[in-house]
């Protein structure tokens, strides 16, 4: 067992973990943060995307011990006092989801894009979401939602 | 799936890492970005007993110039390579190919050194470093040595690195002023290349003075295309480039898989070499 200290959505946790524990399983099974789903066994789908020290990562492809000393933001840490971010509102308003399984990862990947590139083109949005698979929507409304969020001043604030 | 159990250490220095690798023997493995190793372990296709996490060793990230040579730390992530001003200027081909690797989340973790040490012939960066005529610097219990890229990739997923050697940096002679292009043929976005071609071109008076062609996924290792390179020297127009590109599959032994037959791969190598060289030469 290895001792880790990780800040997740603003709360610091100290834990003993097996080195083989994946970050996504730590979040879901140990911390009960089931907002971050697992969608594949091959690191392809991006459903598990979280923010690790300011960068989007696939939490199924990071060990919990690698996150020792780091700050993680999951989809559950986006809203403040129950108030959605502009990006979340845009997903809701533009029907950017059907079953919703890919949505946490889409939100985290889109958020990462908007941090680096606040005014992306549709093409840039598609490239940025290349690692996130959606089996329902056909992507069209997801791209629209990200573009809508980008033109909304509040998102970037 | 859950990876098999292993021990984990996180050394603070290169020396500590090398010692841990030497103590762990054949069953120890470096964990860099983990973007190839952890997926393999999740699928239970790799069973290391000890992972030596090199993610927190200072000094293995970023780039610097030593004379005309660009030195890139092995632990530099794909994401950082893409944004590195020295890489863009002195090894534009590396930046261009890195932009086609995986997706943003994988590029935040995956490293240049990890991609080269993994030595997947379908990965994009090995053929690029071969075309850039780079050197890979390794540190082991017996000291430090530089391995030319042409001697580094020995077979499918095999390199000249000993199990107790750590790749620390990649040295790339500057190709500032050369034209470059990476042409990748893939079935869907975020996928490995069915075939990829890395082209570097030095022009003189409008025609090609020197061309280098690196091939991704045309055999069990990344390859150069020497017959095409020779034929390209002196080519002055698109027709001459396309003729020379017809030699790009000479001497290769591409594999057969669910995406392509060897014959189709050879066809792709010829067509993509034409496109890559024309783009690199600004003749496209
Ligand atoms: C969904 C997905 C898509 C991808 N698509 C592409 C693609 O299109 N093109 C492409 O080229 N790659 C692709 N990759 C692979 C990606 O580029 C990896 O980042 C890279 O292959 C491995 O780098 P890493 O740092 O993650 O290495 P790791 O996974 O940590 O290590 C890989 C291997 O190299 C060894 N190793 C690592 N670093 C060192 C070192 N410094 N010294 C000695 N040995 C070392 C490890 O022991 C291990 O055996 C993809 C990966 C994923 C998950
Ligand atoms: S669950 Fe992580 S990429 Fe699919
Ligand atoms: S909404 Fe169902 S997978 Fe995207």
TrEMBL record, chain A:
State the UniProt keywords alphabetically: 2Fe-2S, Iron, Iron-sulfur, Metal-binding, Oxidoreductase
User: Which InterPro entries does this entry report, sorted A to Z?
Assistant: 2Fe-2S-bd, 2Fe-2S-bd_dom_sf, 2Fe-2S_ferredoxin-like_sf, 2Fe-2S_ferredoxin-type, Beta-grasp_dom_sf, Diverse_Oxidoreductases
Q: Outline the extent of the 2Fe-2S ferredoxin-type domain.
A: 2-78
The yes or no answer to whether the keyword Metal-binding is present is: yes
Question: Record's superkingdom?
Answer: Bacteria
Asked if the record carries the keyword Disulfide bond, the reply is: no
Q: Which CDD domains match?
A: fer2 (cd00207)
- For this entry, the protein name equals Carbon monoxide dehydrogenase
Organism encoding this protein: Streptomyces griseorubens
């Amino acid at each position: 067992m290895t001792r880790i200290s990780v800040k997740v959505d603003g709360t610091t946790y100290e834990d003993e973990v097996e080195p083989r524990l994946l970050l996504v399983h730590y979040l879901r099974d140990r911390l009960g943060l089931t907002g971050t789903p697992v969608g594949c066994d091959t690191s392809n789908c991006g459903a598990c995307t979280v923010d690790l020290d300011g960068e989007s990562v696939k939490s199924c492809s990071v060990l919990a011990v690698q996150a020792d000393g780091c700050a993680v933001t999951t989809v559950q840490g986006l809203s403040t006092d129950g108030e959605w971010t502009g990006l979340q509102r845009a997903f809701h308003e533009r029907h950017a989801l059907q079953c919703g399984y890919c949505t946490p990862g889409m939100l985290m990947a889109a958020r990462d894009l908007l941090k680096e590139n606040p005014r992306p083109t549709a093409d840039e949005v598609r490239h940025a979401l290349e690692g996130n698979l959606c089996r329902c929507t056909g992507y069209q409304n997801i791209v629209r939602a990200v573009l809508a969020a980008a033109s909304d001043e509040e998102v970037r604030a | 799936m859950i990876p098999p159990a292993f021990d984990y250490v996180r050394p603070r220095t290169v020396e500590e890492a090398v010692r841990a690798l030497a103590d762990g023997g054949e069953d120890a493995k470096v964990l860099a970005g983990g973007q190839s190793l952890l997926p393999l372990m999740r699928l239970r296709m790799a069973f290391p007993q000890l992972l030596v996490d090199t993610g927190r060793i200072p000094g293995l990230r970023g780039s610097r110039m030593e004379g005309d040579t660009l030195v890139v730390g092995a632990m530099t992530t794909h994401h950082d390579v893409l944004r590195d001003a020295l890489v863009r200027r002195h090894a534009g081909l590396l930046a261009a190919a890195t932009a086609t690797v995986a997706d943003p989340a994988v590029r935040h973790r995956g490293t240049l050194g990890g991609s080269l040490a993994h030595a997947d012939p379908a990965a994009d960066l090995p053929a690029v470093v071969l075309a850039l005529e780079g050197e890979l610097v390794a540190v082991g219990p017996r000291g430090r040595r530089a391995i030319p890229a042409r001697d580094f990739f020995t077979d499918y997923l095999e390199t000249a690195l000993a199990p107790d050697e750590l790749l620390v940096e990649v040295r790339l002679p500057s190709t500032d002023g050369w034209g470059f292009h990476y042409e990748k043929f893939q079935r869907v976005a975020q996928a490995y290349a069915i075939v990829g071609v890395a082209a570097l071109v030095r022009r003189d008076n409008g025609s090609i003075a020197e061309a280098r062609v690196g091939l991704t996924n045309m055999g069990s290792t990344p390859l150069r295309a020497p017959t095409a390179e020779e034929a390209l020297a002196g080519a002055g127009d698109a027709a001459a480039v396309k003729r020379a590109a017809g030699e790009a599959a000479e001497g290769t032994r591409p594999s057969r898989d669910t995406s392509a037959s060897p014959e189709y791969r050879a066809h792709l190598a010829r067509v993509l070499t034409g496109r890559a060289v024309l783009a690199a030469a600004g003749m496209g």
